[in-house]
Amino acid sequence: MADQTRHSEPVGADTLFDITGKVALVTGGSRGIGLMIARGFAEAGARVYISSRKREVCEAVAEELSEIGACEAIPIDLSSVEACRTMAQELALREERLDVLVNNAGASWGAPLEEYPEKGFDKVMDLNVKTLFYLTKECLPLLDKAATVGDPARVINIGSIDGIMVPAYENYAYSASKAAVHHLTEVLAVKLAGRMITVNAIAPGPFPSKMTEWLLDNFQEQIEAKCPLRRVGVPTDMAGIAIFLASRAGAYVNGTVIPVDGGLHLT
Which positions are catalytic? Predict the structure, then answer.
C-alpha cells in the first residue's frame, strides 16, 4: 500500500506557516487585537491592508508597519452596509485578490442592566455582527480569486470568550454579539466551503487594548489569578494563532471557534 503520509513538497515549519505574498485585510487594524494581527502578518511577509475610522491614526500605523513589511491604510468607518461595499471596492482597485479577511472591527458598551441604552445595544450589534456579515459578503469576489483546493481563501472572525461563557461584567450587547459571531462563523463556514473559502473565529481572552484598558487597570490581578496560565495575552499569542489560520498549516481548519485565553474560559 502506498504511503498516504507522503507529500510532494516539503512540510517543514517554514513552508507550513509561510504567508509570504498573501494579501490580507484587517479591519480595526490600527490598535488592539487588530494591530497585533496586522503586525504579525506584516512581519511574516504578507501584504497587509488595515482599516479604521480615524484617518490620521490609520495612516500613521500603516506607515509604522511599513517599516517592517508591506502595509497600507484604507481609512473608513465600517458602521454601514454602504461603507462595507466601499471598502471592498477600494481594495479591488489595489488588489486582484484577497487571501485573508480578518473581521476585527468592533465595539463594546458596558452599563448596568436597568440603565443599558438602546443606542449602545444597536451600535455594538451592528458593528460586531452586521458589519462582519456584509463586509464578508462584499469581499467574496476577491476571496474567490484567491481560493484554491490546496490553499483556500480565509475569513478570520474575531469573537471573544465572553461569547462562550457568561462574563463577570455587564457588557450585555457585547457578549451577545460575540456569541452571534461564533455561530455566524459556523454558518458561513458551511456555506462558503464549496467555494474553497474557510471561515474560523478566534475568541480572545483579556489582551491589553483600549477596549480592555478599564478592565485590566482594575482587575488584572484577579483575572491572572483565575487564569490557568496566570497571565493575560501578549501580541505574539494573537499573531501566532492568526498566522496559523492564514497559512497552509490551517488549510483544513474550518468552522472552528478557537479560544486564546490561557484556559480562562474553563474556569
Answer: 174
